[in-house]
Every structure is written in structure tokens, then in C-alpha cells.
Amino acid sequence: MYLKKKLSGKRILVTGGAGFIGSHLSQKLADNNQVVILDNLSSGNIKNVPKSDNVTFVNGDIRDCDLVDKLVKKSDLVFHLAEFIPNTSSFGSGHVVKYSVDNPLLDFDVSTRGTLIVLTRVNKHKKRLIFSSTAAVYGNSGTAFQEDMRPCPASPYGASKFCAEEYINLFNRIYETSTSILRLFNVYGPRQTKYVMYDTLVKLKKNPKSLSMLGSGREERDFVFVKDAVDAFIKVAESEDTIGQTYNLGTGNATTIKSLIDHMTKLLSIDPEVEYQGESWKGDVSRLVPNITKILNLGFKPQYSLTEGLTELIEWFSSNID
């Protein structure tokens, strides 16, 4: 099985594997495993799919019951990262939260019903599921979030993910389905084409002298580099001790948006006039910073500082975004 062993020689299904995080995870897994990516490219990009003989791409939807059944049956392990993230730049930073506020039913259909479809097939074929959830389940308590806190989502996105978590935990309890949950905080890095860092780079490329930002700049986030996030997913999958467990995935360090912008402009060697608008979108929260003791106890240790991660992101952006 997976107890304290490296993932090797497995056939692994990654839903959402053409997306930002999913493609990095698939690339890492493909070093020692056969990887099947299921993605409908509503947000993911075919260019993100690793070019490897160990990777097979399937253009399809997690709500296609027959397709999911066939792919899960042939897999040893499922990493479920697919969710509804609009492939658009028209909604401002925080796309997934803002879009879920505008389209709660569609968000629910993918993030909750889609997850339940994957979960039922994982249970049917007695496979292992690693689920990518979100810090948005916690809402806006303003504390260092711990896994045993009662979630109180502030957006439909957080609510749909929490509902999916409840189904996963239920299946673990009553069917003994092998499941684990990671609650992702602010993952960033190359191939990310949404959210605050990318949006800021786009704005500064257009006008390096002036920058307008939502909020006050005092909002706090935990930014974790994508390669560290991938290592955490794999750590969880490699141990049977993680079955039935939920883990926060972050660095444990708080960074204000103002400090983030200062980091970015320094690395870009520019000094724009920054204006904070004061208001943000519905469902936004002021602080998202976790307690990560639980995942640290698995042996996970973030390797990238914010400066190191931003340097890789900026280098990728400069080489790939026109």
C-alpha cells in the first residue's frame, strides 16, 4: 500500500491535472508513476500537461459518471483537484470566491456534486482519495485556523468545498473509504494565471508607475509556493496514518498584502504609487493564516521563502505572458 513508502510504480488519476497546482503535481508524480489527467480545460490549459510518456491526458468532466468510473477503476490512487474556476480575467482578483458569489449553483454542481461522483467511484472500487479543499471553509474568524475548528464559510465557494469535505468524512466513517483532505491556503507560482500576484504583475506590466489594489493592504494571507504544496500532497499520500485526516497546507507565516506588493515591486526594481481602494468583493476575508503543526508532524517542511518563490513566479511571467 502507501504506508511510509515513496509513491512509485502506481497508476494515479489527477482530476484538474491541467490546472495550476494539478499540473505541477502531475509533473512530479510522473517521475515514478503512470499519471492519467482528467480535465475539461474550462480553466486548465493543455500547455500545462507534462510532456512525458508517463502522462495520459483525458479531456473530460468529473460530472461524467461513466468516464470517472472507468478511470478510477484503472487507478491505484486519486488526487482530486478539479473544481469550478472561471477561465476569465473579467472578475478581478479573487476570481473563485467572487465568481461563486455570482454563480453559487454552478459552483456547487462542480465542487460538491462533482466531488461526490468521484468519491462514490473511489468507494466502489476501493481506491484511495486525496482531496484538495480550501482555507475558504474557515470564513473570517481572524485567528490562526486549526483543523478542529468549526468551519464557517463566508462564500459559496467555501460552502461547496466544506459540503464536499462532509461527504468525504462521512464516506470514511460509514464505508471506511480511504480519504484524506488538504485545506490549501494561498498557493502561488509559475502557471498561475489568476489571483493577486498574477493580477498585480499584469497591472504593473501595463503601468509600472501606478497600481490600484482592492482592500486596505492590511489583509493577511499565508502564501505557499506550489512546489512545497506538491510535496505536501505527496507526503499525505505516502502514509496510511493520514487516512481520515484533514490537514492545513500553508507555511504558517502571515504576509500582509502591502508587504507582498512591497516584495514584488522590489524584485521588479520599480517604485509605483500604490492606491488601496478600501473595499473588496463579497465573500472576501481579512485574514487567512493557518496553524500547520499537524502537517509538520508528517515531516512536511516548506522549502521556499516568499522572495525565492516570487523570483520563480516573476521569471516565468516574464518569459510566458505577453
Task: Give your account of this protein's structure.
The chain has 322 residues and is of the alpha/beta class. The chain has a domain at 11-187 and 224-251 and 290-303: Rossmann fold, CATH 3.40.50. The protein contains 10 helices and 15 strands. The chain has helices spanning 20-29, 65-73, 95-102, 104-124, 156-174, 195-206, 226-237, 257-268, 293-296, 306-320; strands at 11-15, 34-39, 55-59, 77-80, 128-134, 144-145, 178-184, 186-188, 210-213, 220-221, 223-225, 245-249, 255-256, 273-276, 287-290. It has a 7-stranded parallel sheet with strand order 3-2-1-4-5-7-12, with helices on both faces. Strands 6-15-10-13 form a 4-stranded mixed sheet. Strand 1, helix 1 (20-29) and strand 2 (34-39) form a beta-alpha-beta unit. It is globular, with a radius of gyration of 19 Å. The relative contact order is 0.14. The mean pLDDT is 92.
